[in-house]
Amino acid sequence: MTLDQLRLFVAVAERQHLTQAARALNVAQSAASHAIAALEARHGTRLFDRVGRRIVLTEAGRAFLDQARLVLTQADRAERTLNEFGTLARGTLAVHASQTIAGSWLPRHLVAFRRVWPGVMVRLSIGNTAQVADAVDSGRADVGFVEGAVAAETLERRLVARDRLVAVVGPEHEWCGRESLDAATLASGAWVLREPGSGTRAALETALAGLGVPTAQLQVALELPSNEAVRAAVEAGLGATALSASVVAPSLEAGLLQALPLRLPDRAYHVVLHRHRPPGRAGGALLALMGLDAVSG
């Protein structure tokens, strides 16, 4: 069993598609198929079943997946440990960030990092706040960036920037042009929200609760997994939402969205670090560029 086989197995399991996994790892489909078959033959058990066009894990495959991920995480950390004895001429920086941060604030910092350390490969993964926190907690991410709260006691947050939420509707929505919106109106209207676990959703729910609209009273017409999907749905006329100012700015300028007269509080962007595990030399270098100390405090 090799690390390449484990990486391929995990890629197929996550995508449920052999061709997509092979493409993601830059290997030929035939080589990928042979590697999975060899792994199954060596241990005498099927890891996948084919269901239509999808490839799904067997019971043995599901049990193996967690272990394979753990081995790959440990192998990556071991390799980074050796690389860090050098001068960051080589290495990998694993960053996980929420969609809002990854789509606006973070890229310029990653570009600045690459200019200083061009030999370090930066891997950026995007998820909601809960997913980012889990990645840092499990060791899959060196550092994370979120705008929501994190629950794990093993994690700490540090302020890095501030953001502003803007409530918006489509230009034909009945709330357009109103000078004020009371709690009853807000509770009776349809809302398009991000999925549970999203920092953007949590911030909006907290703000509306402060305006007298408890979360349980919200009329959620649609839950979507990305800022872009939420924005597009509201542009098409389905309800109201609130997103980062940077996300809605182009649509406001184009007249595709109209801002609502709601005073929503600013929210903070935080870097998320593990309290008991340093972020590594590359992670520390990124934090230093941002004027932060890598040492937990």
UniProtKB/TrEMBL annotation:
Statement: the UniProt record of this protein carries the keyword Transcription regulation: yes
One Pfam match: HTH_1
Assigned keywords, A-Z: DNA-binding, Transcription, Transcription regulation
A single GO molecular function term of this UniProt record: transcription cis-regulatory region binding
Start and end residues of each HTH lysR-type domain: 1-58
Top-rank taxon: Bacteria
PANTHER family on file: HTH-TYPE TRANSCRIPTIONAL REGULATOR, HTH-TYPE TRANSCRIPTIONAL REGULATOR CYSL
Sequence similarity: Belongs to the LysR transcriptional regulatory family.
Protein name: LysR family transcriptional regulator
Organism expressing this protein natively: Roseospira marina
